[in-house]
Design goal:
The chain has 401 residues and is of the alpha/beta class. The chain has 2 domains: 187 residues, Glycogen Phosphorylase B (Rossmann fold), CATH 3.40.50; 180 residues, Rossmann fold, CATH 3.40.50. It is built from 15 helices and 13 strands. Strands 3-2-1-4-5-6-7 form a 7-stranded parallel beta sheet, with helices on both faces. A 6-stranded parallel beta sheet has the order 10-9-8-11-12-13, with helices on both faces. Helix 12 links the parallel strand 12 and strand 13.
Length: 401
């Protein structure tokens, strides 16, 4: 840590709608980022977040947390700017949430950033865009005013990079900073596999196909179940492990998938854990033979479940969808990427992944590349470049060669 007390550090204000214990994937990202920025010592770090009883201000070790924003909306843009400027920042880091959020409130930061820039042009605005590619083009345009007002935009993967460029944002403003999984998994191995299967009741002689995440139509769990039935018809013993509960509002789909399993005579061959904690996920990954995640709009290097499966040394079957750009690094990292989400293609992809597993040397290189601490180090280094106004470097991508 920088201990030079004679040099006044610049203040960096992280603006985020979520902070622990608000249930949102951005919450753990903000705390991890703030902690590492404090450890670096270059900036005085402050977090401005929602006025919510769930916010734990005492989690801010070495930085202050201000839960002051009562409502995130376009109509409140002036008050939000007032709160930001009251903290006297030199740099503002806006954590802009997933493009999946709809409604007028999703335009909040596209209204706040231009106003903030007009009122305080000397303040450098750096946006962390948590995803953008997986929405349709007319919805992606919502964020164009935000990106234009920003001095730097950070994305985590190549398809989000392409989606920001689509908004006519110059390359010199876009930084690609990788993410890794926060879930601690166990390495594949005979003992871990046996232990994981015993805990979850998975037969030792079955091919175990694992998934974790919400169960909703956009993840094509029904297609996965039909693919498993097709594999079973080939006289192969198979067992599905679905780790995750119903997505809010999609409880009916969860029940439909369970009923489909019964119809296809897979009731005894599928374990449904419901909402799974990290220990269950780690045990499931250790006990599995292959991990399958089939996002309708394609996957990328932001998907925590897939990153966790990579760290657990599992073969992976997932999807590409050219309508929402493609993250080609997935294939370099050994994933079988399907462009058709239908039972036959998924069954074929599972058998291909099982029959062409990466070498131990490749798996070791992949683990090192995705090591959470190493990835966080790269992420913070790139963010600091954006905060200082240094231009982006060419993105470092994994190469299978």
């Amino acid at each position: 840590m920088n201990t030079n007390h004679n040099t006044k550090r610049q203040r960096l204000v992280i603006v985020s709608g979520s902070f622990p214990n608000i249930r949102c994937g951005v919450s753990p990202h903000v705390t991890a980022l703030a902690r590492r920025l404090v450890e670096g010592g270059e900036y005085e770090v402050v977090v401005l977040t929602s006025e919510d009883a769930a916010v734990q201000t005492d989690l801010g070790e070495g930085y202050q947390v201000y839960p002051k924003i009562s409502k995130w909306s376009v109509g409140q843009r002036g008050k939000i700017c007032d709160e930001i400027l009251a903290l006297e920042p030199e740099v503002v880091n806006i954590q802009n949430p997933s493009v999946k959020y709809l409604g007028w409130n999703s335009l909040t930061m596209s209204a706040v950033a231009p106003l903030l820039k007009r009122r305080a042009p000397q303040v450098r605005i750096v946006v962390m865009q948590h995803d953008i590619a997986l929405s349709r083009s007319w919805l992606r345009r919502r964020y164009r005013p935000l990106f234009r007002a920003a001095d730097g935009i950070i994305v985590s993967n190549s398809r989000d990079y392409q989606a920001v460029r689509e908004q006519k944002i110059p390359e010199e403003k876009i930084y690609q900073a990788p993410l890794s999984s926060h879930i601690k998994v166990m390495r594949r191995g005979r003992e871990n596999k046996a232990a994981g299967r015993e805990v979850l009741g998975i037969p030792n002689d079955s091919i175990c196909v694992a998934y974790f995440g919400y169960v909703h139509p956009g993840r094509n769990i029904d297609v996965l179940i039909r693919a498993m039935a097709m594999i079973q018809e080939q006289n192969k013993s198979i067992h599905g492990l679905i780790m995750g509960g119903a997505y809010a509002g999609e409880e009916g789909y969860y029940k439909q998938c369970q009923e489909l399993g019964r119809e296809l005579k897979l009731a005894e061959q599928i374990t449904w854990t419901g909402y799974a904690d990290e220990e269950t996920i780690a045990q499931g990954m250790a006990g599995a033979d292959v991990f399958v995640s089939l996002p309708q709009r394609g996957a990328d290097m932001r998907n925590t479940s897939i990153l966790s499966a990579m760290l657990a040394d599992l073969p992976i079957v997932t999807t590409h969808n050219a309508k929402f750009f493609e993250d080609r690094e997935m294939e370099e990292l050994g994933c079988v990427c399907l462009r058709k989400v239908e039972p036959g293609a998924v069954a074929e992809g599972i058998l291909k992944a099982l029959g062409n597993q990466p070498s131990p040397e490749f798996l070791e290189r992949r683990r090192e590349w995705l090591d959470p601490e190493a990835v966080w180090k790269r992420h913070v280094e790139i963010m600091l470049r954006a905060c200082r106004g240094q231009g982006p470097l060419k993105a470092e991508l994994f190469s299978s060669k």
